[in-house]
Amino acid sequence: MKLLGLSTLLAFSAAAHAVVIGNLSSSALIVQNDDGQMPYIIDSDDAAAPKKRGLSYNDPNLTKNFGSKLTWAYNWGQTPGNLPKKYNYVPMLWGLKSGLPNSWHANAEKAIKQGATHLLGFNEPDNAGQANMSPATAAAAWKKYMQPFAGKAKLCSPAITNGGPPAGQAWLDSFLKACTGCRIDCIAIHIYDSPSNVAYFKEYISGVGKKYKKPVWVTEFGTFSGSEQQQVAFMKQMLPFLDGLSSVERYAYFMDGQGILVDSSGRLTPLGQAYNSD
After folding, report:
1. pLDDT tens readout for residues 155-186
2. Does residue 213 sit in helix, strand or coil?
3. Same domain flag for 243 and 186
4. Among 1, 78, 186, 252, whose CB has the most other CB atoms within 10 angstroms?
5. When comparing pLDDT for 12 and 83, which is higher?
6. Full residue range of the structural domain in which residue 241 is found
7. How many C-beta neighbours within 10 Å does residue 152 have?
8. Which range is the signal sequence, renumbered to this chain (predicted)?
9. Are residues 242 and 128 part of one domain?
């Protein structure tokens, strides 16, 4: 174990939108977000390089072959299944369909007790094929189902698409305006485009951080076009960018599924190997 130098510590604090407010030992630091909420403890050995990379998954059995670079996971659901304990699980209230809110409070409380530090709310409410909610409906639902957890966990905004108005950021702007008194600790976004359009991905993600001035969670990003070689090249360009951009707090490629990051047995594909690399 080692104590961080001041310059390294300050660099981490800036990247994590946090300040160090004390220490417990030579290897543990007490860190507080810059909004003054929820102090938490980190190991100083890991403090210089906060880990952002995670998995979006449906089958937890397909998450087992990834290394220590990946630290968290979510499945668009409320319970992790048999997700390996090495991942910090983040539950989501996907939307208002199929009675999902009925089980939310108990499942979110349980997840927090088991170590969940964040909660995700509403999957692509700006998309008719997903949660499909108006900003006003989403704001009312947020106040009823998400806001009660303010102070117990960090609350990430509804995950919007990168579509144009009235979807995407236009939808989020209307939601934030309608959601008076709501606690929003981080902004969740999804973004898809061509693997050759890396500049667009970088510009869009950077712009979200600058606009909303909150930590950004890229909970889905990817491309469904191009060859495997082009997709791997895209991945190798995006990972250093996401790891280095201080406004991005966490990100997850879409997805840990067969034919994308893994095969049917859970072995990493070339794209999965790229995502698993340093």
Report:
1. 999 999 999 999 999 999 999 999 999 999 99
2. coil
3. yes
4. 252
5. 83
6. 51-276
7. 15
8. 1-18
9. yes
